[in-house]
């Protein structure tokens, strides 16, 4: 599953879920948390499980946070229906990931789901507490990505997330930087926060291009109209792909530690970057 564009859809609406699946997003996230009212949680959970049974291994489900009355019921209903991954909101520490991974272990075994098939994505910056420990490296092989959440974090801090010019407030920007580093250390994708205004394509493009330049692999989306710009920003340009293919040919193919490309020295650091570029490239352009 590629993770350039991830589109939320409320789990209690089969119509909206179907529309999201047909949208062309790399991944669709059925949401049991923010978009579902407390009184509708049980119905939404059953609806999500039903949608998943028609598309095993193809959808992500955002469950409710640990510590809520719905968390365990969400897991018990969703894991046997075989989602591609669980998205855990309000993750506060690596201990939350370890606990979730162990619970999925049990539910996979009990439900006849192939062991290790359900991945995990974490919304890892939604609270101030979550920033105390972001060492997710080696905690669980289920981890696929760390996701940056600006809106909930700013609410926890009591501030507005973006300044009038669209830039992030200082503590929110600091959390964004920490997430990028934590994702790289864990060897997983970093996914950027949703852009909150679907009516502002210029703002979306600016924020998305900045995220791609800073090392994010994708972005959470709240409207189908955001997908085209987001997917484009996280798809390497043909010339960048050509560069990466040549780096791989010169270094990986020959076994050399260094080489010269277009008059410049390249080494193992460039090879690592080239592999990442090719992983994000369109299918037909990969080696």
From TrEMBL:
Cofactors that this protein relies on: Mg(2+)
GO molecular function: lyase activity; magnesium ion binding
Protein residues bound to Mg(2+): 126, 152
Example GO BP: oxaloacetate metabolic process
Pfam families: HpcH_HpaI (PF03328)
Domain HpcH/HpaI aldolase/citrate lyase stretches: 4-224
Alphabetical list of SUPFAM superfamilies matching this protein: Phosphoenolpyruvate/pyruvate domain
Binding residues annotated for substrate, in chain numbering: 62, 126
Keyword terms, alphabetized: Lyase, Magnesium, Metal-binding
PANTHER family from the UniProt entry: HPCH_HPAI ALDOLASE_CITRATE LYASE DOMAIN-CONTAINING PROTEIN (PTHR32308:SF0), LYASE BETA SUBUNIT, PUTATIVE (AFU_ORTHOLOGUE AFUA_4G13030)-RELATED (PTHR32308)
Similarity section: Belongs to the HpcH/HpaI aldolase family.
Stated name of the protein: CoA ester lyase
Species name: Methylobacterium terricola
